[in-house]
Records
---
Amino acid sequence: MKEPQIERILFTEEQIDRRIREVAHEISTKHAGKDLKLIGVLKGSVFFLTALARELTVPVKVDFLAISSFANQKGAPGMVKIAKDLDEGIDGEDVVLVEDIVDTGFTTRYLLQHLAGRGPNSLEICTLLDRTPRRIVQVPVDYRCFEIPDRFVVGFGLDYRQFCRNWKYIAVLDPEPAMRA
Ligand code: IMP
Ligand code: MG
């Protein structure tokens, strides 16, 4: 596919790397002396999770789940179901759910409820991007790299029709595609 045009670069590779190091330091400090389980949501958060994991100084395990979003019978968005579950349990573990972006909050809230029922010792959220202007359901974001405006963005895991995930920077597209195309 012909890659979409960029309107502007929101965060450069250097800015992203620096911010991930800062957030990793925050997490490592808070969890010093403990093991961590990072849980990534396929596929968007994979790029952020691996970059974050490399900067953590506490012992880390990783696991992944996949979700699929769908509209309900009335056509309202925000319904989410598990398409691939975790490989291992999280009972008694200190868990950080790693997200590419928290937007309306529906996905994150669903995942939190799903994970909380499995007896983790603690459960936190770490997101690369946080777009609070579009929040519909409140979720407790413990760590965020960047707040972003209400524009569709791609790169560093975020896709436009499954492309652009491998970009090293995060960009706003031009012309702006429909949200979540
Ligand atoms: P939420 O349930 O509305 O919070 O949606 C979160 C999911 O929507 C993310 O994990 C992304 O897959 C997708 N998404 C939301 N905004 C964007 C964007 O600007 N670019 C690419 N994907 C997005
Ligand atoms: Mg997507």
Note: The chain has a mean pLDDT of 93.
---
Amino acid sequence: MEAATLKYPEVKNYVEGEFVSNGQKKLDIVSPIDGQTISNLPLSGMDEVDAAVKSAERAFEKWSAIPIKERVQVFYKYKALLEKHREELARIVHEENGKTMGESYAEVDKSVELTEFACSLPQLVAGEVMEVSKGVQCRIEFAPLGVVAFIAPFNFPNMVPHWAMPNAIALGNAMILKPSEVVPISAIRMAELLKEAGLPDGVFNIVNGDREVVEALCDHSGIEALAFVGSTRVAKIVYKRATSNLKRCVALGGAKNHLIVLPDAHEDMTATNVAASMSGCAGQRCMAAAAMVGVGAVDHIVERICEESRKIVPGDNLGSVISKEAKERIERYITEAEAAGAKVLVDGRNAVVEGKEDGYYVGPTVIDYVKKDMAIAKEEVFGPVISIIRAKDLDEAIEIENSSNYGNAAAVFTESGGLAKEVMERASAGMVGVNIGVPVPREPFSFGGWNESKFGTCDITGKSSIEFWTQRKKTTTKWNPEARTNWMS
Ligand code: NAD
């Protein structure tokens, strides 16, 4: 389609404070709400990555020399700009990703919270100093790494880049962002608002594209550290490639989150939490409930979950999934589970939204009596679907939860403190919830899973990210050589 007729202009790279087109092969950007092409995106490669690295290297020298208290002033202004443009930013998320406007507002609000945390970094990186021996001091400072990169997935076009960008840049690094090629429009406004907030040109750059850009970022010798968020399949590729090129890397992967529901769980709270967790953002959250492990007599809660799920309506309080392929994949999982003996209690297949017949919608789906070895129980479905697996006792439920290759989130619903504690201790997951369906740690706590949900040591947000985006400089000083010394001086 001609660029002039599209809702958003062609998406460009952002290098040295300018939007630049590379004029190569283009991808259509399709809004999943109604299947309409809204923009297009030229695909970059190593040349564009190299130009961005050079821009970031030049900017890094000056930016890293500015004291952190001064650097974060940009983020105070940027936070105010995010708030001022909340409506517009949310609308872009809604149109390019397909989630509801309410969810899009929440996403922008979370970006505000992440930026707010970056503003607090001077308080957290004051360093340490000690007189280790008479006249001799050791001190630790957190020094930036240099040029760093962040690779993003499609499911949170505004928020997930903010997991990395404000902290990495406030800590003195220069960054290259590679947005998901499916949802690249939100990042354009990030760049514009950062410039308006006073960020010097070259400190933040965007290179758009797909696999080729990711490989170039992993290979480029000018990049010191790389953070990735996406599927486990790609996280493994990126982690191996970046670390084999001797880069620091953290790569967050996919998820299969289990919610363990005990018979004493609060019926209403559990039902609303489970339904909201599995269907929020059309189930396309790495923290979404994918499986509910019902322990013993929980039919009354299952019934309430079905009731709650029926209130969730595609095109109203349920957004679209990202693509036609995603819709087909999700529906295939449901059909195969049904054929293998599972019972579909609420069926979201073949959902159509009036007036948006070309959009990609799947209704909320509740499937009971799923067996733990079915594909739907083990693999990441990434849609508004909850598989209910029955367990005879808590031991069996924890065993089912822990048999997953993933380990992003786990949760338990119960009124018993003792049983909740047992799940907290034994669940093999990085983020555990008690009576909460989406146990995302809020700032300053850090976000990151275990097992195949994360490769690398640090978490991506919060205090843990400080270790990822900085290196410790250890300085030992002695200023009074004439003073009394002993063997340690
Ligand atoms: P994806 O892995 O397909 O893509 C992520 C990024 O990798 C994109 O920028 C894409 O261009 C790039 N990419 C894709 N294939 C590649 C390849 N072969 N080589 C190199 N780069 C490649 O993920 P997605 O579909 O965009 O996002 C959904 C996935 O992200 C889900 O699995 C979800 O669980 C996961 N996710 C995880 C977290 C977390 O915190 N663990 C958060 C958000 C999303």
Note: The longest strand covers residues 136-144.
